[in-house]
């Protein structure tokens, strides 16, 4: 029996992602403070609350990965909340009285894009 | 399977990439690629050699067709370009280089650029095995999935990102830290093999890898599908074909092949907001 003819379908999506993903790192100016995942998330929520209020602090925000040693994380935020989260991270200046800043390393609507970072390519 | 080598050259004057000798040794005898190393496309001058040299420092883009140039090296156009790169604006960059030799002679980048501290590198390969991995159920004929039967192609795309970033896939809906879970319907596979290759990799090597993966299903296998994802350099000034590549919130341009055991395949291509739609 002859094989059926190959079919081809092309679908183009524009802004298909419900979420945006951010790879971030918290840096302290002097000696750091340890934060576990729950404390880290609480810090993010309070940063958004300080700038935008209670309602926006309830934006769905997930910490997909968290490394306590380096205080780095991959965050997932609904796309409509990206600007609010990013601006809150930008304006966060201290935690428990210690000066700190968030570094935003990568942002993408595609989580797969965050699995590598060509800007971090190191040649041995 | 070898996926390299590639080369790193420090402080290479840009005019070295348009000399008749370079063009006849590398450009005409294979596929040669170069990209400036450690230059951010949204901040610095960036140069890429694909089928042409493209230099970009927003909003200026300079494109030079080397093959066209090589047809008439006595032309005023070539003289002007050469003078610009040598005298008017003698730029130097650190370059990543790779070359696919289709000629019979054994020219090498190492000897050609020996006066410029050239180093040879091999792409870094990391292998890992994940046990009891929750995987989305897919149907090759249903890109948009079917309720209770299979997942959407977009859901697979994000799930792949989760797997390669070591994201936990089975969080409860009331978990404070994360509610992310594997798209449904899903199945648990006993073992999944992940391989990451990092470096300046030739398209020809990627094609070979893809061919190998296609042959994976020549014999009967339990796996329903395999995937190959490729990410372009965020700071490349070109994307698919000769399309200009941009960096706004991010410089992502990537593609993913899903090869099914029935020889169907999906090709997913994703670009950032500053790029044109892929071909």
Key phrases:
heterodimer; A: 124 residues; alpha+beta; Alpha-Beta Plaits; 24% helix; B: 279 residues; seven-stranded antiparallel beta sheet; three-stranded antiparallel beta sheet; 19% helix; nucleus (chain A)
Describe what this molecule looks like in 3D.
The complex is a heterodimer of chains A (124) and B (279). Chain A is an alpha+beta fold and 124 residues long. Chain A has a domain at 23-107: Alpha-Beta Plaits (2-Layer Sandwich), CATH 3.30.70.3250. Chain A has 3 helices and 5 strands, in the order βααββαββ. Chain A has helices at residues 37-52, 54-57, 82-91, and strands spanning 19-28, 61-67, 72-78, 94-95, 98-108. A 5-stranded antiparallel beta sheet of chain A has the order 2-3-1-5-4. In chain A, β2 (61-67) and β3 form a beta hairpin. In chain A, α1 packs across α3 (82-91). Chain A is globular and about 75 Å long. The mean pLDDT of chain A is 92. Chain B is α+β, with helices and mostly antiparallel strands and 279 residues long. Helix content of chain B is 19%, strand content 33%. Chain B is built from 6 helices and 12 strands. In chain B, the strands form 3 sheets. A 7-stranded antiparallel beta sheet of chain B has the order 5-4-3-2-6-1-7, with no helix packed on it. In chain B, strands 10-11-12 form a 3-stranded antiparallel beta sheet, covered by helices on one side. The radius of gyration of chain B is 22 Å and the shape is elongated. Classes of the chains: A alpha+beta (124), B alpha+beta (279). At the A-B interface, α1, β2 and β5 of A face α5 of B.
Strand order of the largest sheet of chain B: 5-4-3-2-6-1-7
Mean pLDDT of chain A: 92
Instruction: Name the helicity range of chain A.
Output: 10-25%
**Number of helical stretches of at least 4 residues of chain B:** 6
Oligomerization state? heterodimer
Order of helices and strands of chain A: EHHEEHEE
**Element string of chain B (H = helix, E = strand):** EHEEEEHHEHEEHEHEEE
Low-confidence stretches of chain A: none
Low-confidence stretches of chain B: none
Estimate the strand proportion of chain A: 25-35%
Question: How is the largest sheet of chain A built, in terms of strand order?
Answer: 2-3-1-5-4
Terminal CA distance of chain B reads: 29 Å
- What profile does the largest beta sheet of chain B have? 7 strands, antiparallel
The geometry of chain A reads as globular
- According to DSSP, the number of beta strands of chain A is 5
CATH topology of the domain at 23-107 in chain A, by name, is: Alpha-Beta Plaits
Structural class of chain B: alpha+beta
Please compute the radius of gyration of chain A using only Cα atoms.
Answer: 19 Å
Percent range of helical residues of chain B? 10-25%
Family (chain A): Belongs to the eukaryotic/archaeal RNase P protein component 2 family.
Function (chain A): Component of ribonuclease P, a ribonucleoprotein complex that generates mature tRNA molecules by cleaving their 5'-ends.
Pfam families (chain A): RNase_P_Rpp14
Keywords (chain A): Nucleus, RNA-binding, tRNA processing
């Amino acid at each position: 029996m002859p094989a059926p003819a190959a079919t081809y379908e092309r679908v183009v999506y524009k802004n298909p992602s419900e979420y945006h993903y951010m790879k971030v790192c918290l840096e302290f100016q002097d000696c750091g403070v340890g934060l576990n995942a729950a404390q880290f998330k609480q810090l993010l929520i309070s940063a958004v609350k300080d700038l935008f209020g209670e309602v926006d602090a309830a934006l769905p925000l997930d910490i997909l990965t968290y490394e306590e040693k380096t205080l780095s994380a991959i965050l997932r935020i609904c796309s409509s909340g990206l600007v609010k989260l990013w601006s809150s991270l930008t304006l966060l200046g201290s935690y428990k009285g210690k000066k700190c800043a968030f570094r935003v390393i990568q942002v993408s609507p595609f989580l797969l894009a965050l699995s590598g970072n060509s800007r971090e390519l190191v040649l041995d | 399977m070898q996926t390299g080598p590639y080369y790193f050259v420090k402080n290479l004057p840009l005019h070295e990439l348009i000399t008749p000798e370079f063009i006849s040794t590398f450009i005409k005898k294979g596929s040669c690629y170069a990209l400036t190393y450690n230059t951010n496309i949204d901040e610095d001058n960036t140069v890429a050699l694909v089928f042409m040299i493209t230099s970009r420092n927003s909003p200026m883009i300079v494109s030079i067709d080397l093959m066209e140039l090589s047809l008439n090296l006595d032309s005023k156009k070539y003289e002007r370009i050469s003078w610009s790169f040598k005298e008017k604006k003698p730029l130097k960059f650190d370059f990543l280089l790779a070359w696919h030799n289709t000629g019979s002679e054994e020219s090498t980048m190492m000897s050609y650029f020996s006066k410029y501290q050239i180093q040879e590198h091999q792409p870094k390969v990391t292998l890992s095995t994940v046990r009891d991995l929750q995987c989305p159920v897919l149907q090759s004929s249903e890109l948009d999935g079917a309720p209770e039967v299979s997942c959407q192609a977009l859901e697979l795309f994000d799930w792949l990102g989760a797997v390669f970033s070591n994201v936990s896939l089975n969080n409860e809906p009331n978990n404070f830290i994360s509610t992310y879970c594997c798209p449904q319907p899903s199945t648990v596979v006993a073992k999944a093999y992940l391989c990451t290759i990092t470096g300046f990799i030739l398209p020809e090597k990627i094609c070979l890898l893809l061919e190998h993966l296609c042959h994976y299903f020549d014999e009967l296998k339990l796996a329903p599908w395999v995937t190959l994802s490729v990410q372009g350099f965020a700071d490349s000034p070109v994307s698919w074909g000769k399309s200009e590549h941009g960096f706004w919130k991010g410089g992502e341009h990537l593609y993913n092949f899903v090869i099914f055991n029935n020889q169907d395949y999906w090709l997913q291509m994703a670009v950032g907001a500053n790029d044109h739609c892929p071909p």
